[in-house]
Amino acid sequence: MKKICICFLLISNVLLSQELKNAAYKDASLSVEARVDDLLALMTLEEKIGQLTTPLGWKMYTKSRNKAVISELYKKEIKTRHIGGLWGLLRADPWTQKTLETGLHPKEAAKITNEIQKYVMENSRLGIPLLLEEEAMHGHMAVGTTVFPTAIGQASTWNPDLIKKMAEAIAEEIRAQGANVGYGPIVDLARDPRWSRVEETFGEDPYLISEMGKSIISGFQGNTAEDLRNGKHVAATLKHFAAYGVSEGGHNGGAVYIGERDLFQNFMYPVKEAVDLGILSIMTAYSSIDGIPSTAHKKLLTNTLREDWGFEGFVISDLGSIEGLLGSHHIVANEEDAAAVAMNAGVDADLGGNGFDDALMSAVKADKVSEDRIDEAVRRVLGVKFKLGLFDNPYVDVENAGSVVRNPDHIELAREVALQSVTMLKNENKLLPLSKNLKNIAVIGSNADMQYNQLGDYTAPQAKDNIVTFLEGIQNKMPQANIRYVKGTAVRDTTQTNIPAAIEAAKSAEVAIVVLGGSSARDFKTEYQETGAAMVSSSEDEILSDMESGEGYDRSTLQLMGKQLELLQAVVATGTPTVLVLIKGRPLLLNWSSENAPAILDAWYPGQEGGNAIADVLFGDFNPAGRLPVSVPKSVGQLPVYYNHWAPERRDYVEIDAKPLYPFGYGLSYSEFEYSDLKVSVEAKGVNTKVNLSLKVKNISDKDGDEVVQLYLRDMVSSVLSPVKQLRGFERVSIKSGETKTINFEILPKELSLFNVDMEQVAESGEFKVMIGASSEDIRLETTFELSENITINK
């Protein structure tokens, strides 16, 4: 009898193996839906929950003596947890403790991802490939990749086409190394510069954010189903859902207090645009909205995203945010309930691997979560895998990674993005551009020669030759000049200060270039929370790190830290013409600098080619046209100071007026432009209504240059409060000296709409004011038009 049973089991296993070998989900000729249905029907509950688990990836390999192999931990995760993905497999930074030596270089990365996929395909029952998810907002966060300016700098270009090219390059580098999901775009509104993650955003305006976000999505995912499978694109993950960037007091991940109308009018606007474009993944936020944590917000995650908007991708928690329902928000009593609440709210996948897993299994067995809901979540994750073509070919060409990653074209593109992001804030008496006949130049400041300080947060370790600092950029530009470098002081630490040496250098120079600002540079001494956010350095540290921005580094003031302002004041006092260059991640208070420094350039975090780019602008080889994507305040007491607030107009304070120091959209050029001939017409009716505008812009200077033409609207009479001014179109256009170009804009009803008293999205009939200018305050042309009827915007 025992022999018969053994034979029966052997025969059953052979038949089952044969059945799986010929399973329909392996047939590439079938539709994604048919393949998902077939695979889902074959899966056990344990395998389904495993597909929703995304552990930390960098623990899944070990490297010694330049040889990397998959770890025993990874083999265990496949065998016991049936994991569906990994986050940050290729990530390297102080938190992961992966360095240039212990991290993976591009060809090593491609080799490991191949081995990772090969192992799961051959050593799991169903052979389901993994989603390999990577940080990617200003370059793939891995060793040897191209480092672009951070998002706040990208937005300063006001050039969505350029940002799409950047995103295509990032996606190509990620995919060439074997990963297949890129985290981005980040569409959080940055209304409070005290918040630590302003640098990761596209600024304060929903329309600008939306246009930049759509460029990232198109660049990452391509424009067709075939693009996703061609080995050059990745699935995009939008962050953070929803309204993450306006927590009370600027505290990262804190409570958010906004009304439903503001939420949908502003914060959800770029998310809706991303969903309409076909974003494949959305990440929740650490914060809460009106008392409901984002990771538990069923009304937004299910009712809005799924039912109203038709989002078809998967929702993933931010790292540890499911556990945070218990440990941070305290809305549940145990891990099982945390998993149940998140799953039932609409979270499909768990980033970090500790939020679902056993806790979710227990919730299902306790009837707190239905298996139908589990199937729904798994279906969404598997759908993305099939769309990426991973079941048919999860592998990459190892040699190709070496030629694709950080290739010359991508390096040149990084320089172009940096060039277009540089924003000139002041140029008194046309001090800039500087003469190339200068013989003696002083380069001074905390950020003049600090490579990591110009790269921003979420940056991997860098080989020194990969990064061009500001000092190196000036040396490259002016090899014949005597360039004297004095650091003068650090960003925060005051024990590393030598202002007398800076004064001496400035006095002996024809021009002093002072490079100050902030830093998001992490070091291996910094302590980190479980989520990866940095812990603020103690005042008792022997030497304070430069880090004053980046995730976890919220601020209560916005002054230049340490003795930086004292250094600038001392240099300006020498009488030597002084140029202030700012490298930083958030708006800072620049009142004294703006009044006393003759010239100011804002470069944000300009990336690996930042030094060359800033030098090109300083010496006139590139005419700056960057524009501020955020308002720069005069005082912390003014906050919030964003331009597109609701009526009425803001009143002045006793001490100062209510206006920012530099307004949204502001930036100077070496050229001058004249605006004329604004024309407007309204065509068609109802949902097909189009408002067409045209104007002429002439370069009236002797220098070719770019102008950023900005279109603002105001609904003159609205049933609910509406913005005093709202960006609804822009174009960066190159115009030669003496040339005139015609600029055209088309405005659709959704750009005219608001959410009325019943929370219906409607473009209301009546008068609209059109304002065209070079910033939100520098309005050159105005006109009005009438909308003859109410137009309901379909969800």
UniProtKB/TrEMBL annotation:
Belongs to the glycosyl hydrolase 3 family. GO terms for biological process: glucan catabolic process. The keyword Hydrolase applies. It holds the Pfam family Fn3-like. GO terms for molecular function: beta-glucosidase activity. It comes from Salegentibacter salegens. Keywords: Hydrolase. This is Beta-glucosidase. The keyword ATP-binding does not apply. It comes from the Bacteria. Residues 707-776 form the Fibronectin type III-like domain.
